[in-house]
Design brief:
With 94 residues, the chain is mostly helical. Helices cover 73% and strands 0% of the residues. Helix 1 runs antiparallel to helix 3.
Amino acid sequence: MHQRSPKTEKTAQLIHIWGMTKYLHPAASDGKVDMDAEFLELLAKLNTITCTEGVNELFTKWINKLNNIDAKYKSSNANLQKDNIFKKILIIHR
């Protein structure tokens, strides 16, 4: 079986996480964030990262940024903090 290069693997992870986030995260689905611009920014940053821990940190910070954007538009963010699917996604990819 052919093993993917580290760059290809990182890009595949980005596409997977970004794709789920684009359609499922409230900040993205409500149009509060330009997800195409987010993808290009993440891809540029991803290309400078050389270790798994750095990739995980990039995705974690990005999801937290989106959570903070969404929380600003909610009167109460209790549900966002309590059961956030995107925190679970990050755990899966570690």
